[in-house]
Task: inverse folding
DNA sequence: TTAAGTATGTGAAAACTTTAACGACTTCTG
DNA sequence: CAGAAGTCGTTAAAGTTTTCACATACTTAA
């Protein structure tokens, strides 16, 4: 548990993977250096915010020059522990679960779904996206030492499965169900609530009008 | 454009759909009233925050009593424009797009995907989750007056499709691609970046340890 | 060498968000 | 009906995040 760096603001921490991805892009394009201004345009985060974010880790750049892409990339690779693959479990191989299993998170992320569980006998024993689907009854036996789970079961099953995941040693859950699950205080749950995101977008559109309605040519 | 209510904090606005959903649940359960404390336990938002959020809309509750579920529900139904169905388009009927098409957002949300587009001829003409899939070449002709789009195409296609959506009159985009798209300033884009959410969860687990490692019985 | 140009890192301010605390009023109980 | 209990709405404080603005230091090119 790397504690030497503990008070990076949460808002900053959430942006790190985004920076990392775009640095990877720049690197693949052969770019050797980048300024906070350029990065700002790419990731759509204010350049002062980017400089501030980076500064929490020390002086990563050089005045008058910007940041060395290779150096920054390798710094973030370490910071984000991208040298070791993070292995996760997925529970609920339905519509959403299947989509995730078919997606290669390892691409620029070094995270891999290792095993999946479902209650539906027809799914059990098959492979989806190269991942074996086990029966949910075998959760405790087969989950091994995985500490992160993606939850894509029906809302009604969410709390029960969560309790079992916690008991089985999982410490982080990415919850896609609409249920707000109860967990002991040492377990971290992140909610991704797609229906709410959609509804919020619609609300903002109606109630938070942006600038100019239109003027023929923009952007 | 309902302007009478314009300075509700964004953080509050984002929680409204969550409140609305849980009020619906309570209502189905036949509950007549609810306190900010009960609601707090259900949605996992501090009760003071809930009271503060509600207070932006006036005095919705009664001291010593709490909130009347039916009243609150109908208030939020109006506030969130849930009386009219919001119709949206989906672009990219792949793994993720298919999952969304098979999901019934209308359940407690009154949002409906009306039409889908894809570049793959084999998909065009089929129905997925009851939604007709059209060819992307027909986007401009068939999108009609829809003003919200869900973007689930490959990242490489994201900017091109976005430009066409904007030109076709769409004003809100829910972007699931890892691309950070450019839009004129009057267009609203919300990003849902699943790979980043997963990576951020992993980062938080490693670097932001929560309380007690464990003590046998919790929660 | 020097001058012009560039871009960082950060102090300070501003903006936004959450949380604590409590007076005021309502409901409940006996 | 009176006192106890409950709960809101809000003032004020604390905490978090973003943004401004600039001294400083490096780069570039002549
Ligand atoms: N599909 C979407 O677009 C979408 C959108 C928003 C929210 N969600 C939420 O995501 C979750 C999954 O959605 P979905 O569309 O994939 O649903 P789904 O019904 O397609 O898939 C659920 C899967 O979980 C399995 N399952 C059921 N009970 C189980 C249990 N006890 N243990 C293990 N597996 C079990 C089912 O067999 C099924 O394969 C739901 O909670 C849903 O509300 C989905
Ligand atoms: N599946 C996941 O779990 C997941 C996770 C994170 C991010 N994403 C992102 O979501 C997006 C979609 O992912 P996916 O897994 O569904 O991909 P996918 O390849 O399964 O689906 C993409 C679909 O878009 C269609 N398409 C391609 N070009 C098009 C165009 N110009 N116009 C219209 N349609 C076009 C393809 O025919 C295909 O059906 C991608 O950008 C991906 O990076 C997906």
Result:
């Amino acid at each position: 548990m790397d504690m030497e760096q503990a008070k990076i603001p949460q808002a900053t921490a959430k942006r790190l993977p985004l920076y990392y991805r775009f640095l990877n892009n720049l690197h693949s394009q052969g770019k050797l250096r980048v300024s906070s201004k350029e990065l700002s345009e790419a990731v759509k985060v204010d350049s002062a915010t980017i400089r501030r974010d980076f500064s929490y880790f020390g002086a990563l750049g050089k005045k008058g020059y910007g940041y060395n892409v290779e150096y920054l990339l390798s710094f973030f690779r370490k910071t984000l522990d991208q040298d070791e693959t993070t292995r996760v479990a997925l529970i609920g191989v339905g519509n959403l679960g299947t989509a995730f299993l078919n997606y290669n998170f390892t691409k620029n992320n070094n995270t891999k779904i290792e095993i999946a569980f479902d209650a539906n006998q027809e799914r059990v024993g098959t492979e989806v996206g190269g991942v074996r689907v086990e029966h949910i009854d075998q959760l405790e036996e087969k989950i091994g030492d995985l500490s992160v789970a993606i939850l894509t079961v029906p809302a009604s099953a969410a709390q029960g499965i969560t309790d079992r995941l916690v008991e089985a040693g999982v410490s982080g859950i990415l919850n896609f169900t609409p249920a707000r699950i109860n967990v002991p205080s040492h377990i971290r749950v992140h909610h991704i609530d797609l229906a709410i995101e959609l509804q919020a977008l619609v609300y903002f559109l109606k109630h938070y009008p942006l600038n100019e309605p239109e003027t023929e040519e923009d952007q």
Summary: The two ends of chain A are 45 Å apart (CA to CA).
